[in-house]
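for the record, two folds in this file. i put them one after another cuz i was lazy. first one right below, seq on top, structure tokens after. the second one comes after a little note so u can tell where it starts
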Amino acid sequence: MSDNSIKETLNRIPYGFYSLTSHFEDDANAMVMNWFSQVSFTPRLVAIGLARKAYSYNLINQSGVFAVNIFNKEDQETISQFTSGRAKRPNKMDTAVYTPGPHTGCPILQGAAAYLECKVVQMVNAGGDHDILIGEVINAGILKPGDVDDTLTLPHIGWSYAG
């Protein structure tokens, strides 16, 4: 199988488009991410592919908590302000509107349809450019009506982060 076939096949996976939020002490961050899935019922665990060079990586490593903000398709503009990393937009959180999560203190972004608050169970060095962050869901909230068909996805916005 050619490398191109592998890339094309991986690009057929319809990833969601979420915001991963984190904080440590007075520093908070929001970034976009899409490599995210539930991986256990009991306890309820989720896994995220997180780049080791991401600003949020160190915040999560230090605090041991994170949140996943889920957006509806109609709220694409709201999440777009978090597509640039802190290196390009060091002050991006200055204009972000959010409330601290009740259990983790991680930003719950205004405009999110739902959120999950998680505590880190394990950060697994996967041997690539992303590590696997495993978190236990300790709280959740529904902020807007909707279901899985309403959730913002990369195919919806015409982006791909795979291959």
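(here's the note) second protein begins now
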Amino acid sequence: MERVVKFLKEAETYYLATVDKDQPRVRPFGTVNVFNGKLYIQTGKVKDVSKQIHANPKFELCAFKNGEWLRVSGKLKEDDSREARQAMLDAYPSLQGMYSADDGNTEVFFIEDAVATFSSFTKAPETVKF
């Protein structure tokens, strides 16, 4: 998991795919944080992505840097604890102008059953699970 977190933070932007009924939806994300040994992402409850995750928690994300890309799939599970929300906001102070741990909108999800594959055109893919 540490290698995945390092890659995502260095890439700065990753693209999160969810399902909206029968239509895939992809959008840029930038939040990634480890809390209590789990990998978390953050969004707002008012956003379509939140509704899509609650309806179908399966996701895939992809990031690219320096000729290598990472794909991660699994399920996203909401952690409704204030501590998890605050940990994310502490890791990303720039979000604190838009979100707070107690605003009723900030939402964090951790990844379950993760399968992460590191790929490039110059070497064989490498898969890790966490």
